Amino acid sequence: MAALAHTECKHETELQRLRTLYQLLESLMEASSVLDVYETALTSLLEATNADRAAILMFDDDGMMRFKAWRGLSSEYRQAVTGHTPWTRGARNVQPVLVPDALREKDLHPFHEALAREKIGAVGFIPLALADGVFGNLMLYYAEPHEYEQDEVAIAQAIAGHVAIAAERAHGERERARSEQRLQAILDNSTTVIFMKDGHGRFLLINRRFEELFHLTQAQVVGQTDYAIFPPEVADQLTRNDRKMLTSGRPLSVEERIPQADGVHTYLSVKFPMEGVDGAPAGICGIATDITDRKRLEIASRRLAAIVETSEDAIVSEDLDGNIANWNKGAERIFGYTAEEAIGKSISMLAPPGRREQTAEVLRRVEEGIRVDPCETSRMRKDGRMIDVALTISPVLDDSGRIVGASEIARDITARKRSEEERASLLLREQEARKTAELLNLMGPRLLAELNPEKLVQAVTDIATLLTGARFGAFFRAAEDATKDAGCPYALSGMSPEEFAEYRISEIPVPLDIGTIRSDDISQDGRLTQSREPPDLAPSLRSYLRVAVESRSGESLGALVFGHSSPARFTETHEAILAGIAAHAAIAMDNARLFEQAGWIQTELKRSNQELRRANQDLETFAYSASHDLLEPLRTIALSAEVLERDIGPTLRPGESAFLKRIMTAAHGMNSLLEDLLAYIRIAKSADGPPPQVSSADTLDRVLESLDRIASESGLTVTRGDLPVVLMHETQLVQILQNLITNSVKYRGKESPRVHVSAAQYDAWTVFSVSDNGIGIDPQYAEQIFGLFKRLHSRDRYPGSGIGLAICERIVEQYGGRIWLKKSAPHAGSTFCFSVPASRRRETGGSIGESKHAPASENPPPGGQ
Fold first, then answer.
1. Helical spans, DSSP H, in 450-571
2. Pairing between β-strand 717-720 and β-strand 754-762 as defined by DSSP bridges
3. Residue 335: burial class (beta carbons within 10 Å; 0-12, 13-18, 19+)
4. Do 624 and 630 touch, CB atoms closer than 8 A?
5. What global pTM score does this model have?
6. pLDDT above 90 (res 77)
7. Distance separating alpha carbons of residues 820 and 67, to the nearest angstrom
8. Cβ proximity of 748 and 827 under 8 Å
9. Phi first, then psi: what are they for 834, rounded to 5°?
10. pLDDT digits (tens, 9 = 90+) for 165-182
11. Which has more pLDDT, 38 or 646?
C-alpha cells in the first residue's frame, strides 16, 4: 500500500509539473513583453520545483551577468553576487550547476557571507541557451541544503528552454520595433521631405518634415492622393512626374514648385521606384529638398555680379600669392588698367614705390585669419599718378571654409582728401584765430587787473610770444638813444638770458620814423642796415618783429621784440595782433603807475580813518561822560523846583507859577533825553562776548510781563507765530521787542492796540515782523524815523525823545542785521521787520553780518550793507 501511495504521489507531482509547464506555455504565448516572460517563468519555477526563491539573470551588452527578475531576494544580496556565473557568454553544451550545500561549496566561498545573510542553503544554476550558446540562467534558491530530484531538474530545464525561446522572440520583436523606431527617427529628423506612395499615387508614409511644412498629420495624409492635399495645378505637376518615373522604371530628379504658408518654395525631388513581387515598380519613394534659399542665392549672386560689374568702386580679388583674379569696370576706371591688362598680374603693381612689401604683409595677415581693418592709403594708377583710396579687405573662402584669397574694395577719395585738407587748413586757421581771441580776451582783464609792473610786463611778453609762435620774445624799456633798444630786456620769454644774449638784439638800429618793424629775413633787410655794416647777430636769427609800446600821451614806454630761426615766420596778422597787445600793455602800464600813485593816497586815507575812529571814540566817551554828569544837576533843579512848588506854590502869582512849571517840565524832559542818550551809547558796551542762543518766544514772554500794567490800561492784545531760537544777547532782543510794542501802544488809534509778532528764516538770518493797527506812518518817512531824536509828531501829543527806533537800529546793526519799515500807511497800521542771526546757519551762511541775501524781492536785505 505504501508503495502504491508513493507511486500515486509521484504521479500527482508529475501531473502538477506538466500542468505548470502547460500553463507556462500558454502564458508565454500571451506575454506582450520580456518582463511578462520573466514574471511567468518565475511563477512556474516556484510552482514546479521545491525552491522557495528564484531569479532570472542575463548577460548585458558589456558582458556582465545581471539580475532581470527575482522573487524574495534583497537588494544587498543581488548587488553582492551580480556578475557571478558558472559559464561564459556564448558557452555551448553546458549543463545545470546544482549546489546542494551552498555554504560548503568552495566555488561560492567569496559569497558565503552574502548567502548566510540571505539565509540561502542550496542554489541551482539552470542555463538559458540557444544556438548561439548561453545568454543567461535561471536561479533556484533553497533555505536549507537540498538534494535535487531528477524530475525537478528536468522541469526546470524545460522551463528554461521555453523561457529562452520566448525571451529570444521578445528580444527579436523588441529589436524589430527598435529598428522601426530608428528608421522613423531618421525619417522624422531628416531636414528633407520623405514620402512613400503606392502605384495609384496614394500616400503610404510621410515623415515629420512633411507634416511640419504642410501642417498635416500622417493620419490625414496616408491613403490620400496629391489632389486631396495640394491645389489642382500643383497636384497635376506632382502626378505627372510620378507617372514619368513609374513608366521609365528609373529614378527621376526634378524641380517641383509647391506653395507653403510663407510663399511658393522650390523643391529638388528625387523619386525612385519600389519593386513589387514580380520586380515591377509597385510604388514610389521620394526625397524632396527645399532649394528655395539656394535658388534665391543664385539670383542674388547674379544680381551681386551685376552690382560688382557696375559699381563705381574698384572691386578686385586675388589669390594668396597676390595674383589678380577678378577686375571690375570700377577698377578699370580708377586705376586705368583694363581687365585683360590686370588679371593674372600681381596686385603689388598698384602699390606706391617703396611700399610693395606692405601688400604681401596684408595677404599674409588675411591667410592667417587676422582681421584687416578698413584703412585709407595710396595707390598708383597706370599713368603713374598717385591717388588716395579708402580700402576694405576681406578674406575669400572656398566651399570648405578655407581662406583661398582676398577681395579688395577701393574707393577713390582723392577729391575728398583734398577737400578735407582744405577744411582742416581752414579749421586750423579758425582754431588759431579762436585761440588768439581767447588769449586776447584773457589778456585784457588780466593786464588791467595786474598792478605789479614787473609781473605785468612779463605777462604781456609771455602771451605775445605764445600768440606769434616766436622762438623768443622780449620787452625792452625805452632807452635814451631812440635808435636802439636798451641793452638788457626788462622781460624775457622762450629762452634763458644767457641764450638771448648771443642774439645781440640791442645792436639792431631802429629807424626813428618806424614804430613797427617786421622783417622776413633780417640779414637781407636794408631798412635795418642803412648802408652800414650789418650788426653781428646770431646766425640762427632770421625772422624779426618789433612793436613799439607808447602811452596814451605819446610817451615811449619801450618795445616788444620777437625773433625766430625760420624766415618769414611773422605775418601781417601777427603784426596787427601785437599792435593791439601793445596798446593794451600801454594802458595797463599807465594803470600800474596810477596804482603806485594811488598807494600813497590809500595810505594817507587809512591814517585819516584811524584818526577819525579815535576822534569818534573820544566823542562817544565825551558824550557818555557829559550825559552822565548832566543828570545830577538836572535832578537837583527838578527837585528844587518841586520843593518850591510844594512850599510856596500857593503864594506865587500866576505868571510865577507857570514859570516854575516850565522849569520842572524842561528838567524832566532834559532828564529823559539824557537817559535815552545814555541808553543809546551803552548799547555797544552792554553786549560783550559772543552772542548766545536765546529763545525769542521766552524773551517775548518776559517783555509782555514787564508791560502788564501798560497792557491792562490800554487793552493791548499781542498774538504770535512760531518764534525760533536766535543768536543774540537776550537783553538787546528785549529792548527791540519792548520798543516796537510800546510804540504800537503809544501811536494807537481809536481801537484797542493789537500787535502780532512772527518770524521766518532766510539763509543764515531770522527776520522778525511786528505788525500793529496803529495810526500808521507815511512811507516817505520810512528812513527818517530811524534817525537819532527824529520825531514825526509833537511832544505834547506823543511824548518821548524819538530815540527808540534809533536804539533798535543800532542793536541789529551790531549783529550785521537791518531794521526797516516793511509796510505802512496813515490810519492803516504798520509792520516793522528786523533781521538777526539764526541759531543754525545754512551752508550759505557765515559769520554775523556776512549774508547779503534778501528774504524777498520787495524787501531790504536782512544783513547789513
1. 453-468, 497-501, 526-529
2. parallel
3. buried
4. no
5. 0.31
6. yes
7. 110
8. no
9. -145, 150
10. 877 777 777 777 777 677
11. 38
